[in-house]
Amino acid sequence: MKFSKRMLVASAAAVTAVVLAACGGSGGSSDSSGGAAGSCPLGAPDESITTTVRIAYQKIPNGDLVVKDQKILENCMPKANITWNVFASGGDVIQAYGAGSVDIGLTGSNPAVKALSAPLNTTLPPTVNTWIFDVIGKGESLVVKPEITSAEGLKGTKIATPFSSTSHYSLLNWLEMNGLSETDVELVNLEPEAMVAAWPDLGGVFVWDPTLSELVKQGGVVLASAADTAAAGKPTYDLANGVKAFVDANQPFMTMWAKAQNYAVNLINNDPAAAAASISAELAVPPADVEKMFAGYTYLDAAKQASPDWLGGKLAMDFFDTAEFLLTQGAIDAVNTPEAYAAGVTNQFAAEAAK
């Protein structure tokens, strides 16, 4: 099965289009801090770090929102100039790299692989992946109308997902696994915040929280999830990546950044109520609902991430496998070399954060 390139791929020219630094795909906001008052949970603040950084974040229940809400970066690097920009999806973040409007950010593994593959690897600045925010499981799912109880029941319906996202990748794999083709369903490119309003006209959506939980509250039923496609050998991740030139030039900042992320991961795993309180403020949903969302993801501490099972080796192999699938879908022009995908991943900062 192959879904048409017209449906799957935004023009490469879009990557070089001007993207406002303070907005995501359907509008966004930014906030800056040159040193918010507060304590650094990592030890003494480091005033020698004076990096100016523009961070692209998404409203996904993982440690990045803990770091943002608790102003850990600002409190631990009070002389740094830090701006947070919200984006609707990883595809938008990749476009922002091309426009030169952000330095580091969060994307799913699917956009990360596209950035390292043709044609984007020839138009984007080189990027590198430095952290795994989460391994996606049931946190990204296919929610359908209650009368739809099987893949067969989706025939003739519209299914929405943000194109170029991990949900898009998981959806395509699930459709293929269940023998559905582009003549059986109509794929619709929608950002998460637009899905609730569009729900009456859709057969289903493949998306993440908090939109996922909101649609379930409205009567939607989970038919499949990224855990199913991962079990079939197609795992997906939410990753931290950035412009390689920035990462290479700001290693003290990146080390402190990784320590902050590791603190947040340990808070989720060891004190989920406290982590949920921070994430609740960012997602505008009750803390109890956030705690339930945690079950849809796996959060890895720095020591695990630095190992050969993850940033130290396997992730690059998963990138290569993902690229081979994207090529069959017309989402990239060519699969890059295994060495190129390995060069697009580093475990340096996770290893330093684990010390």
What do these coordinates show?
- This protein is of the alpha/beta class and 355 residues long.
- The chain has 2 domains: 5-135 and 236-353, Periplasmic binding protein-like II (D-Maltodextrin-Binding Protein, domain 2, 3-Layer(aba) Sandwich), CATH 3.40.190; 140-231, D-Maltodextrin-Binding Protein, domain 2 (3-Layer(aba) Sandwich).
- Helix content is 43%, strand content 18%.
- It has helices spanning 5-8, 12-15, 63-69, 72-76, 90-99, 109-115, 120-123, 166-177, 192-198, 211-217, 226-231, 244-249, 251-270, 272-283, 287-294, 302-306, 314-328, 338-343, 348-353, and strands at 30-33, 52-57, 81-86, 104-108, 127-136, 140-144, 158-161, 186-189, 204-208, 221-225, 237-243, 297-298.
- The strands form 2 sheets. The chain has a 7-stranded mixed sheet with strand order 1-3-2-4-11-5-12, sandwiched between helices. It has a 5-stranded mixed sheet with strand order 8-7-9-6-10, sandwiched between helices.
- The radius of gyration is 19 Å and the shape is globular.
- The model is unreliable at 4-28 (pLDDT under 50).
